[in-house]
Amino acid sequence: MRILAIETSCDETAIAIVEAEPEENEKPVFTEVVTFINSQAELHAEFGGVFPQLAKREHSKNMIPILGNVLKDQETEIVSFSKEQIVEVENILERYPDQKDALIAFAEEHKPSDIDYIVVTQGPGLAPALWVGITFARALSYLWNIPMVGVNHMEGHIVSVLAKENSLALPAVALLISGGHTQIIEVENWGHYTLLGETLDDALGEAYDKVARMLDIPYPGGPEVSKRARAVRESGVDAKFDFPRPMLHSKDYSFSFSGLKTSVLYTIQALQKELAEKNVSHNEATPQALSNEIRDQICFSFEEAITEVLLKKLAFTFDSSSAKSLIIGGGVIANQHLRTILAKFAEERNIELHIPDLEHTTDNAVMIAIAGYFTILREDPSIAPEIIANGNMSL
Predict the structure, then answer these.
(1) Which of 142, 230, 355, 363 yields a CA-CA distance of 20 to 30 A from 111?
(2) What is the Cα–Cα distance from 353 to 323, expressed in whole angstroms?
(3) Mind listing the pLDDT tens digit for each residue in 89-123?
(4) What residues does 184 pair with on adjacent strands?
């Protein structure tokens, strides 16, 4: 089975072709044929986060060029469309009238010869961004007569570990940590999931980015917070600030990071006030920025609190579960410290640990293709179905 996958849930425009081959033991093998990703991070930096309408515009602008790169070395054929087909696809693309002529012309020149299915992220994510991928996928499905399905983005993060391996003991527990989600999910089998708990407020990646903004670290600031924390950790210096560990002893699977974020904010404000008072006493301008040493210590103390909460919640989960494996997915797992401490946790408990390669931690179309494979097994793909973007879609 060869799958063309489209991902536009946030600020990455990603398209991939993946080959799925079921083995005799029914464990599919996934081969990444080709993949392209365009990140909009630099464009959104001035807003301190992803601006939905800008993301929508960039997805629409980038879709055809990226699709062209994906199909460049693939076998394609030239086709022609009837007036009725053109009218119908214009209706599908009514949200993007400036793109319809370019997409129709591209579709005529580049119909892929061996794509069995098209899959596209349906949610969760930013609705304006999701609509771009869904609309273009529907138009291609109709013009090329290729059946398609919508895919859950979070299932993509769970199955992203299958991009490089297919031997994984089930049932498993999945910890998904990203800019928009922090969830613990029981994986009974591929396609069969139970949400055990999630954040009650900020997601983990969101908390990292908000702390970065407090410290005047440009977006995306999460990786820089972790980098600064690592420098302090490697120096052997103890944490200077004792930030709270929200819901550490709650005996459930839920998270809360808003209190931790607020504690960091109050600490920064108190330190700035102290500096301002010193400056006034010396007749100097006020206020001074925090030193790099203090900023690094805040990052370190914040990450230490995060680490303790994650380990405690995972310990509670595995104490009450028969799971044999731990799956970690989502953009935050690119954090090297978290990869290290979670590997130690799994080793101490004799649990299989499965973490995607770095290129599959961020939003990507390969994981959407893999999730699409399992969606196709569960659902009945059709030509250009009425898929609705669902920004709050759950598993």
Answers:
(1) 363
(2) 11
(3) 999 999 888 889 999 999 999 999 999 999 999 99
(4) 175, 197
CATH superfamily of 2-157+361-378: ATPase, nucleotide binding domain (3.30.420.40)
Tens digits of residue pLDDT in 172-223: 999 999 988 999 999 999 999 999 999 999 999 999 999 999 999 888 888 9
100: number of Cβ within 10 Å:
17
Rg of the chain (C-alpha set) = 23
The letter for the amino acid at 11 is: D
B/e letters for 131-165, b = 16+ CB within 10 Å, e = fewer, are: bbbbbbbbbbbbbbebbbbbbbbbbbbbbbbbbee
Give, in order, the Cα–Cα distances in Å from 34 to each of 69, 351, 385. Answer: 9, 32, 25
The token pair that represents 93 in the structure block: 């693309």
First to last CA, the chain: 24
CA dist 175 and 197 (Å) reads 10
Tokens of 305: 């609190």
User: CATH: 2.40.70.10, 3.30.420.40, 3.10.180.10, 3.90.190.20. Which one for 169-355?
Assistant: 3.30.420.40
Q: Read off the tokens for 248.
A: 């550490």
Can you list the positions of beta strands (E) in the chain? 2-7, 12-21, 29-39, 76-77, 111-112, 117-123, 148-152, 172-177, 182-189, 192-198, 325-329, 352-354
Q: Who's near 162: CB < 8 A, 6+ residues apart?
A: 28, 30, 168, 370
Tell me how crowded residue 259 is: count the other CB atoms within 10 A of its CB.
15
Q: Which of 104, 328, 299 is nearest to 209 (CA)?
A: 299
Tokens encoding 23: 């083995």
Q: What is the per-residue pLDDT across 124-164, written as a single tens digit (0 to 9) for each? A: 999 999 999 999 999 999 999 999 999 999 999 999 999 98
Residue 359 burial (CB < 10 Å; 0-12/13-18/19+)?
middle
123: β partners: 152
Cis peptide before 124 (omega within 30 of 0): yes
